[in-house]
Fold these 3 entries.
Entry 1:
Amino acid sequence: MIPFFRGKRKKRLRMVVGLNQVDKMCPGGWDERLNAPTKAAEKEIRRRTQDIVHKLSDFADISPEHIEYYSALRRYRLLPLLSKVIGHAHAGFKLDQVQPADPFGLAHAEVQEFVREERVRRGEGNGRGNGQQMREKLFEEIKKILSPEEMDDLTSEWKREMRQPPKVAILGKAGVGKTTTINNLFNAQWRTSHTLVGTTQAQAKEFELESGGTLTVVDLPGYGRTLREDEEYEKIYRDLIPSCDLVLLVVQADSRDFADDQEIILKLRDWLEDAPVPQR
Amino acid sequence: MLTVVFFGKTGAGKSSTLNALFGLALATDPAVACTSKPQVTLLDPDEDSGLPDEPVRVVDMPGIAESLRAEDLYQPYYEKWVPQADSLVWVTQADTRAYKRDQLYLMKLLPLLRPGLQLIVALNRVDDLGVDEGDESFNTALRRPSAAQLAVLPEKISDVYGVFKEILGEAVPFDRSHVVPYTARYGWGLEKLKIAILKGVER
């Protein structure tokens, strides 16, 4: 068997921490016309998120490679976040066609117009299909190296994997912007949702991706609300997280209180390490 | 000497609340926790007409939950000041739904609370209180909450009351009127908060 999907899997951590709402870090630091932070605010955001990265990585033993800052509401830095999601997810290539919501869609009209013209001028399409092409190229290359039997093994495993829609669990402190993150990061049209546990505590939401295909998002109840609720929800997390390709943990960047987040990162690590590949 | 002790999570706005309430000049910073030791200030009765005759000192305690490591560091301060308190003001924020850290720390303080002590939950940042998309946000010109914010406020107060009551039980007298909404940034609700706090220290 070729270790194509298994490989170095053991050491991998299927988790990305997103520091959301960085736009709120500097009051008055947002340029509404461009829908981007001002130069000064950008610097400040970078400096302060770096601080948070240290706080999280030092205490909760998670590498900065797994942490990215963004603002879902402003559609700011969604691409860097998505790259990390793809990079750390199990079979993350299934998400390589995703296009996050366009930040310029929220800019003033004349800026939007300018961006549109500029994109046409540079001959940038919508960027779709690149992943597909690269994948085909890669297969061509692999074909030259492998024996036909090995190639059959590989393609059947590939097909088996592709039949499973990507499944991402999203988790965060109560009221941190999980839904906005899903909608803008995956630019997804909500299709159906069904309750997994209890009433509305955890839901599997099926999304039709703008880029084609479906995505399952396991929307988990927020932690840190009360002691009693956390105890109840932890059982839900433990049940549902091992089956997911990735856990996207949303953290509020414009906060100084990361104790709940640090605590959950430590727990998530344990749960994910107990299930090195998604248990389906 | 009457003692009012201010508690709360890092970033909830203890220092800015004290500054706004009593005209103090404690350092505040949106990014960095400034208060790492209790700051004791004797209030000047001339400046604040609402003060009782007896001298009042306010104690600004270092914020809890900066990170998991910092918590026990401050425990000796809490053990020193809480038993001396005539009124305890717990500053927390309205623009969140997460109150577990408040609960956890309140639990640690519970054995230190003397029965009959007045505890006020100062519910700061009403200006950032979330309303549904499209609803009007805080009116900064008139410095008061929008109609939408005022509409959700009772529910918010009930929720916060429930969160604190769950821990406090019957340890100290505590009802819904002990949760006081305000915004230190714009001043709305500050006067009511001051009255609530001082009502507790007057004997």
Entry 2:
Amino acid sequence: MKKYISLFHINWQNSLQYRFSLVVYIGGYSIYIGVLLYLWSAIYSEGQSVGNYTLSQLITYYILQLMINSIIFSFVSWDVIDNIKTGNFSNFLTKPLDYYMYWFTINISGKMLEAVFIMITAGIISIFVSDYVSFPQHLSTLIYFIISIILGIILAFEMDFCIGMITFWLTQVRTFKYMLQTMILFFAGAMLPLDLFPPLLIKLAEFLPFRYLVYFPISIYLGKVENPLPSFAILIVWIILFLVLSRILLVRGIRRYEAVGA
Amino acid sequence: MIRVLKRYMRLYKAFFYQCLKEDMIYRSNFLTLVIMDIGFVCVSIILFKVIYGHVNTIAGWTFNQSVILIGTVGIVREMAYLTFRRGFLELGNHIRTGTFDMFMVRPIASGIHLGMRHLSISESFGEGMMGVALVIYGFIHLDTWSWIIFPLYILFLLNSLMIYYGFSLIINSIVFWVVKSQELNTVVYFFMETSRYPGDIYRGIGKVIFTFIIPIGIIATVPASALTGRLGFNFAVLSLFIGISFLCAGLFVWKMSIEHYSSASG
């Protein structure tokens, strides 16, 4: 455990170098939310309504979606892909580190800083558009929300790790990853709330695990989920399934590994 | 003036063939890029379609007209990849490794040379082709039109390209100070992504910001407005003025920034 803690610490220090990103984050996200606010205000001002969302619920949805995008989604697979492609992966085979746990730690420590950034950003944005931000009524809602985010971080990491594992079989994995990522974002509800989709797509989205990454936590926050416990159970089943899949892919991948360039 | 232009045209041609050859090496990559591009455009259309499943118009734009907006962004993007865009994506690397020296010592304007060195035919080809198809689709569904809209559309496309170039010059100039360029490219990417929404949604202070400072209310909206016959004379003149201003501002900021360049290779 101790080695993972120091790993966490080192990576945290590394990320701190990029303070310039914070400026870009705050600027960029504020403008993005501003654009969406104008877009949806224009739609609502014509007396039209969208599903069973009020304007402030939609804006809250987008602010939360930005936060969740940064906090939940893992991007370590870029490094995993590089790592396997360049043959640096060989180093890990000789170290007493678990490859899965290594990247999980890197992911969490990278996310921590990003989480701080994004909370500050979201806070500032919320002050500007305070008329359009809604808050949960009960404490239990907030607790469920936080639990769903923590579970989301784990599930998103597992999915990302599995994508990284594809590199063992397919060297041109990058374009493939872009496509998978877009599909995941789409069915996660990161682009539009899932319940605005046409019925067929809603059915499909409900069947897929991606909805637990964005749509599900936000729905809890907005009070649209009566009793989240059954969904939590399904979410945990997905987490276990993806954990098993990650492990199988890793073991099989190592067997296939050719140590390119090493 | 004409001689200079002719010289640049000749250079462009030479660079174009060179870059085409580079692209041809990775032919299978070309196909995946095109498929991926088409996929991304389809996602945007689906998202618009979903919104239009709940409403009839967005700030006066119907679905078929919004399709022209999406298509126009695609066309402007492809035009940018054929002129300058990928050069800016590579700029961070050139500065970090010191290979930017090469652009400083040649008898061509560095801001143009950088773009021409990295022309890309394949990068946004799919989106460009989809763009043309979408604009044609939207055009067929127009109720009225006259011949004048074609030259106007092309004129304002070029104007948007000019704005995009000026904006890229300004944003990417920051890289001379911070060296890390990933975020800057993301900013430029989102600049184009958010251009898909009609400029008519902006009101008050937003109208000012998204017209003059971050002109995402112009890039796609003005050409598409010209095509759908909703472009007023005053706004047309104003957007041409903004186009020229952005180009001048961009070139000015660029010129100032390269003076800050300190070679890394030694």
Entry 3:
Amino acid sequence: MEVKRPSNVKTAISAVIPFVLLAVMIVYVFGPGSELIGYGILLPDISIEKIEFVDSEIIATVRNTGPIPVDIVMADINDRIYPAAIEPDKHLERFQSAIVRIPFEWNEGEPYAVGLTIDDGTRFEKQVDVAAPSIQPTVEMIAYFAVIGTYVGIIPVLIGLLWFPFIAKLSRNKYKFFLALTVGLLLFLGISATEEAIKISAENLSDVFNGALLVVTVAIVSFLALNYAGEKLKERAGASKLAGPIAIALMIAIGIGLHNFGEGLAIGAAIVLGEAALGAFLIVGFAIHNTTEGFAIAAPMARTKLMIGRLAAMGMIAGVPAIFGAWVGGFVYSPFAAVIFLAIGAGAIFQVIVLIMKWIQNEEGKLSNSSVLAGIAVGMIIMYVTSILV
Amino acid sequence: MFTNRQKMSVVLVIVSLGFVGYLVFPAMDITAQEKPETFVTHSGAVVQTTGDILDPVYTIQEVEFDPQKYLREFDYGKVSYLEDGTTLREFTVIAEDDKMMEIAPGIFWNVWTFNGTVPGPTIRATEGDLVRIHFTNNGSKEHTMHFHGNHPAEMDGIFEIVGSNGGQFTYEFIAGPVGVHPYHCHVMPVEEHIGHGLYGVFIVDPKEGRQQADEMVMMLNGFDTDFDGENNLYAANTIPFYYQHHPIQINTNELIRVYVVNMLGLDPINNFHLHGTLYEYYPTGTDLIPSEFTDMTTFSQSERGILEFEYEYTGRYMFHAHLTEFSEKGWTGLFYVKDSSQLNTEIYDYGS
């Protein structure tokens, strides 16, 4: 140990030196007194991320997404100036955000535009198509979202698990087909979560967040983290013969759980945004769609002894997050949070796909088996058809 | 108990969670002010906040330009007499274009000015006076002064462009016709030069004078602060909502004469509406007989006129653009009418 220590220090120093040199160069180039980069004008930018309608008040959440600090100095509704309050204060450093409260007797169902003007006179605006009262986290609403989450997440997944005995009786080849079918289902879910995350970021997040790159980065980090966790899980339970399939089923359940959280978010947000019809549509669509997820969990376990307790537990792991998603989506919806959760879900799903493919390969020795390829294709087609309902 | 690697990953996870949490819920700031402040809405409701108030109406704001002073300030020039007895009025006007002015509470904007303010000074002469204006352009761009009214072509401020950084020109003409006229810079693009504030009011009084009255000037203007082709702020005399916060004090049964000039750009029309009484309207002020007895006048670009009225009853009366978009973006104000039998009592301090 004592011999090693100096080398550790040396290693640390050698790691730090390039950073120090970089810092010196940056200070020299950009620092005070530097005339090297004096061109161009930094334009301020703010984003109105969220607009809520409460009793006699419209509340806008604003973030400084520009390169320089700004002061918010004026608020308007439909281009008419109104007295307002900004909390915690009107000065916003980069990335800082604040709440602007504009007392206003708004009418339900009408469109509104909220405008904010900064200290240089630039006005920024966000439109709301339909004004609807924002939902408060009362006991009734919490229960309401829990019930919806149950219908969307838990019950369909548990129904899907009832395919267990059917899968258990299948021949080896047919079983492979259904396992591959699961891959197809998940592949579709992973792509759809990524697409949804990119869409939300494009519509609601400022360009400064690099929406698509944020989604890809979070998804890959989530993939790697779950991969690591999955390996550990297998190591721990290595002694047991059942560990393999159960670990896979658990990973699938976790991945699907994250995905269902995203679905809950979508439903909660749709209801909050006053799009009750869309909300109802999502509920029916996701419920049908999610039955296939129960199947995905059941498939890898079908060659083990039926353990109803474990199976049900996995169903809950996959389904319950829909309730949390509905709560978050309904009460504290933030587009940034939605993008992060959807991207984590996508990463989790892709990780599960890799896991199942490995499993099939171990069993079969190759992946290009015709029943495997057919299974993946059919899985994707099933998902596409049920997704039309959403 | 823990390996370094585990510790590192725990730290990494906490840091990244903290960062994500900050971005998701940044509004939960523990440094918020402790004692709440209150403000009053347009409809009279009182609202409490722990943060800052964004209020163009009720906040006392020290704006550099004082609309209360501008309202009744007339520049008659340096007076001397020619050999033939003609009154000579000499004015010095300096144009600048690098000034940042607080044109509304918290909004700092680059204004181009005659004598440092938007609008420029109200230049006033009597019909037949010789007006001589010593104009210096201290701006970084070319500017001129173009007066509406009678004058020789070379005094029109169109072709005699005055160069930047100290260029000089002397405008000289006989004041006329009687009325209220605008003056403004006429260098192209004119919309830009006017939009930034290079304009003012020029009043020519009839030789016989007008009836004694409480006289004031209202320049109807606006600012497109973000250059999107639409005005963000509207006002009478530059500062939005100013006279709503600081009502113009007048007396009952006293003749009030308002010289109104519309220099609003971008919007095709503007208008003026008075509450609680009607006024005699003199278009352009060129005729001494009113054309109309009304409470509503529409103005196109640079259209102007003189309003004369009296109030019978005391109290607060609005005057504003009946284009409510303009009034709710600042072009609105109040007359506070006091009983003329109780003159010079306490100063009314409204809304503070």
